[in-house]
Amino acid sequence: MNNYLDSIQTPSVLIDMEKVKSNLCKIEKISEKYSVKIRPHIKTHKMIEFAKMQMMYGAEGITCAKISEAEVMAKGGIDDIFIAYPIIGDEKIDRVLQLNQILKRLIVGIDSAYGAKALANKAASLNQIVEVRLEVDTGAKRTGVSFDDVVELALEIKKYKNLNLTGIYTFKSLIFNNEPTKDAKLAGKEEGQLLEKIRRKLEQADVNIEEISAGSSPTGEAVASTNLVSEIRPGTNIFNDYMLVKEGVCKEEDIAAYIVATVVSTPNESYAVIDGGNKAISTDMVLNVAPYYHDTYAKVVGRDDLIIRRLNEEHGIIESKTGKTNLKIGEKILLYPGHVCTTINLYNNLYIVENDMVRKEKIDARGMLY
C-alpha cells in the first residue's frame, strides 16, 4: 500500500478494493449458509459505487438512515431501499412519499403512534400505500418501541389502510441482558431470540409479520445462525475498522480502509504531529471505557507502540509507549480508522486502489444529514 502514497494528498481516506471484495464475499457466504437476506447499511461508505457492489454480492436492497441518503442512492439507480429511521415532520414525509412513487420498493421505519398517524394521513391524501416496519428496542436504548408496548403500536399501525406493516426490525449490537458485552455470539443469539419472542407476541394479537430484520456487523453472523431472522443489515463490514478488530469480529488484515496522514512536526522524540486532527479522524470511539478500554482513536499500521489519544481540529498527536516515535517530518503513514463510518463522513472524496491504479472518487452522500 505504501507504493501509492506519493500520489495521495493528506489527510485522506484510502480504500483497498481487493479487501472490499473479500469482505463482501464473506457476508455473501453467511447469507447463503443461513438462507438469510442481506440489506447492508450504506452509512459506512455513502457511495453509489459501493452500494451497487453490495447488490452484486447478493444484497437484496440497501438500508439508509437519512432520506437524503436514500435520494442520492435512488438517483444512482438503487431501487430497493429501507429507511431505518423514524420519519418525523411534514417536509420529510413529503420527500418519502416522492421516493415511494419512483422506487421499486421503499420500506420506512416507525416506532411511534405519532409517526404512524402523520405518515398514514399524508399517504392517504396522495392515495399511496407505504410499506413500513416496526422498530423494537432489544437493549440498545435508542429508537424502538419497548417490548411491553409493541402490540399496542402494531395494532395502531394496522388501523391505517395506507400503511402496510410487513416486518419488525432492531439495532442491538453488542448488548446482552441490557449490558455491553464482548461476546458477539451471545449478543447475536439473544437478538434473534428476543425478536422471535416479539414475533410470537404479535402473532397472538393477530398481527402477522413477514420479515424480521436485525444484525449489525458485530452480530450479523451470530443472529443469522439462529435462523430466527429473515434479514441482516451489516454496514461496517464492507471496510471493517479497528473497533471491529478489538471486538474480535475481524483481523487487522481485513480492514480495507486507511487514513493517510503526513508527519508535519516532531517537537519532541516522545511525540509527533500529523496533519489529521478531529476533522479527519473520528473521535466517537470513547477511550479507556469498559469493556474494550480503547487506547487510541486510530491504529498506526505496523506500529503497536504508537497511540493517538489527543486530537485538535487540525493536529493529531501521536505518542510513543516506548518514549520514542522514530517518526520523521514529511513521512506519510497509514492509520486504521477506529470507527470507519464516522471517519468517512468527514471527507468529501476518497482514494481507491484497484488493479495497481489509484483513483479519486466523490463520496456521493457526504453531508446528507436530513
Named at the architecture level, the CATH assignment of the largest domain is Alpha-Beta Barrel
Give the strand tally. 19
Portion in strands = 25-35%
Number of domains: 2
Give the class-level CATH name of the largest domain.
Answer: Alpha Beta
What general outline do the C-alpha atoms trace?
Answer: globular
Low-confidence sequence ranges: none
Note the quaternary state here: single chain
Quote the average pLDDT.
96
Structure description:
The chain is of the alpha/beta class. It folds into two domains: 2-11 and 248-362, D-serine dehydratase-like domain (Lyase, Ornithine Decarboxylase, Chain A, domain 1, Beta Barrel); 17-239, TIM Barrel (Alpha-Beta Barrel). The chain has ten helices and 19 strands. Strands 1, 12, 13, 14, 15, 16, 17, 18 and 19 form a nine-stranded mixed β-sheet that branches. The chain has an eight-stranded parallel β-sheet with strand order 2-11-10-7-6-5-4-3. The chain has a two-stranded antiparallel sheet with strand order 8-9. Helix 3 packs parallel to helix 4 and helix 4 (90-102) packs across helix 5. The longest helix has 21 residues, at 184-204. It starts with 11 loop residues before the first strand and ends in an 8-residue tail after the last strand. The model has no long low-confidence stretch (mean pLDDT 96).
Q: Summary?
A:
Helix content is 29%, strand content 25%.
Q: What topology emerges from the helices and strands here?
A:
Elements: E1 12-16, H1 17-34, E2 37-38, H2 48-56, E3 62-64, H3 67-75, E4 80-86, H4 90-102, E5 105-110, H5 113-125, E6 130-135, H6 150-158, E7 163-169, E8 175-176, E9 179-180, H7 184-204, E10 211-214, H8 220-224, E11 231-232, H9 242-246, E12 257-268, E13 271-274, E14 298-300, E15 306-311, E16 316-320, E17 332-337, H10 340-344, E18 349-354, E19 357-362
Helix pairs in contact: 3-4, 4-5
